[in-house]
Specification:
The strands form four sheets. Strands 5, 6, 7, 8, 9, 10, 11, 13, 14 and 15 form a ten-stranded mixed beta sheet that branches. A two-stranded parallel sheet has the order 1-4. The protein starts with a helix and ends in a 59-residue tail after the last strand. Helix 9 packs antiparallel against helix 14 and helix 14 crosses helix 15. 39% of the residues lie in helices and 14% in strands. About 5% of the residues have low confidence. The protein is an alpha/beta fold. The protein contains 16 helices and 16 strands. The protein has two domains: 67 residues, no CATH class; 338 residues, no CATH class. Helix 7 links the parallel strand 6 and strand 7. Keywords: Membrane, Transmembrane, Transmembrane helix. This is TOD1/MUCI70 glycosyltransferase-like domain-containing protein. Pfam families: TOD1_MUCI70.
């Protein structure tokens, strides 16, 4: 009995495989079947999804490549209707240009409005930011270190005054040329004439290097709206009278075609190129009633209606200051290197200016900067005469007055010192070249100081190389040790530059 009971107990404890098989058949069989069917489907789905991602990524990259190639093709094409498709203001174009994948054409079409008669002139002035009131020093301090010094056109600006002028305030008073008895005086008849000029196309010729070139394609509306004013010195005026027709009106004003000649008596500088910076940069001081001005160098013939220029470069994009991008350089230190190689001014003095800028924190241009370039083409400047723009022009001129006359070296520096508060539109160089025809000078300009390679050449009998009324900051002690300043390495990016 005990044996039978133990056997029966063991039998009862033994698993019932038949029941388990039935249960597996009832439930687990279908799960296993489902698993066997789902596995290949899931595998196929996963593989298909990965392939889809890869194909989609490849197609997307191909699309981007096609767009970039199309962009390069349109920007490089010599066909006008094709090149018009290239957006030279786009980030893509700037990126391609920076990497050398796109070389902008020398000239390109300008997207001008179709009819000057339909251009709407803004009724209100642009709001003044940061600077509400701007005034100028007009009396130069006649004594330095106890000795008498005649007044200078740019004044005896100290390094501290220069430093303070970069700090924006609501009310500011700065050096800005035109010191009393400093030179560049206008006659009474010319002062009276320019009072009526609200819209100005300005130019200048000094030391007889050029003769006036008549603007083309000027609409009847622009002829009535704009004053075409050509600043000249007595040497240039006499040269014009001998070589072109200069007529005199009933008020004694002198004209060459459309250009009203504005004689600046007593040139403020020894260097003609420095004299030319007075009407170019200080247009707002020479013609204080002007609301807008377009500067064009004296060797150029304007091809575009000036009202269309204001619409294109200022009003359309709500800009107040426009200047072209330099064709070859973006980096000020590279431009300085080019100036030295091309003998634009004394090499050691250019280096001295660059050391000052480097000491004051100016970094070489890079795509990370907010500006398209630190180096402009300064031959054309389009601006509204706002307080901030006028201040910028004063500070820019002060650098030209204090250091070398190479204004392309100081433009980007002043932008940097104003810490991004000065906004401007830098338009494509190919548009710049489509605005004018460049005529050769009547004679080549050459100055002995441009050939100087060492400071030793200024000593002894050659001390006459020094300018007596400009560039004085190159010879006055800078309030810091510049000997330890190392200039950034320059990689020449252009053979032409």
């Amino acid at each position: 009995m005990d044996k039978d009971r133990s056997v029966s107990l063991r039998a009862s404890r033994r698993p019932n495989h038949s029941n388990l098989d039935i249960q597996d058949g009832d439930d687990g069989f279908f799960d296993a079947d489902k698993s066997s069917l789902d596995y290949p489907i899931k595998t196929i789905w996963k593989r298909g999804f990965v392939r889809l991602l890869l194909v989609g990524g490849i197609l997307w990259m191909l699309l981007i490549l096609v767009v970039l190639l199309f962009h390069i093709w349109t920007c490089q094409s010599s066909l006008v209707f094709v090149s018009a498709l290239c957006n030279k203001d786009s980030t893509v174009f700037q990126m391609l240009h920076t990497r050398g994948l796109v070389t902008p054409p020398h000239r390109c079409s300008i997207p001008l409005a179709s009819d000057p008669e339909k251009v709407v002139i803004p009724e209100k002035r642009s709001p003044s930011k940061y600077v509400q009131s701007l005034s100028y020093f007009e009396e130069d301090v006649p004594k330095t270190n106890g000795s008498y010094s005649s007044p200078l056109f740019g004044g005896h600006q100290s390094w501290k005054q220069r430093e303070d002028s970069f700090k924006l305030k609501s009310t500011m008073k700065v050096h800005c040329g035109f010191m009393r008895n400093g030179g560049a005086e206008m006659s009474a008849k010319d002062i009276e004439y320019v009072k009526k000029c609200k819209f100005v196309v300005a130019s200048g010729i000094f030391d007889g290097y050029d003769t006036p070139h008549q603007p083309s394609n000027v609409s009847p509306r622009s002829k009535k709206l704009f004053c075409f004013l050509m600043a000249v010195d007595e040497v240039s005026l006499n040269f014009m009278k001998q070589n072109v027709t200069v007529r005199e009106d009933d008020d004694g004003g002198q004209w060459v075609g459309m250009w009203r000649l504005i004689l600046l008596k007593h040139p403020p500088y020894d260097e003609p190129r420095r004299n030319g910076k007075v009407p170019k940069i200080l247009t707002h001081r020479l013609f204080p009633q002007a609301l807008y001005s377009i500067w064009i160098d004296g060797k150029m013939e304007l091809l575009v209606d000036p009202l269309l220029m204001l619409e294109r470069y200022l009003w359309r994009g709500k800009h107040t200051f426009a200047i072209a991008q330099h064709k070859h350089h973006k980096n000020i230190y590279e431009e300085a290197d080019s100036n030295k190689r091309r003998k634009r001014y004394a090499r050691p003095l250019i280096d001295h200016q660059m050391k000052i800028y480097r000491y004051e924190g100016l970094e070489p241009w890079s795509p990370l900067k907010q500006t398209k370039s630190d180096v402009p083409e300064g031959a054309i400047i389009i601006r509204e005469h706002t307080a901030l723009n006028n201040l910028f022009s004063c500070l820019w001129f002060n650098e030209v007055n204090l250091l070398t006359p190479r204004d392309q070296l100081s433009f980007g520096f002043v932008v940097y010192r104003l810490k991004g508060n000065f906004k401007f539109f830098m338009f494509p160089n190919c548009e710049y070249n489509a605005i004018f025809i460049l005529h050769p000078h009547t004679r080549e300009h050459s100055s002995k100081i441009e050939w100087v390679k060492s400071l030793d050449e200024f000593k002894g009998n050659s001390s006459g190389l020094k300018e007596s009324r400009g560039g004085l900051g190159l010879w006055s002690p800078y309030p810091a040790d510049l000997n330890s300043v190392v200039l950034p390495h320059v990689t020449r990016t252009s053979k032409a530059g």
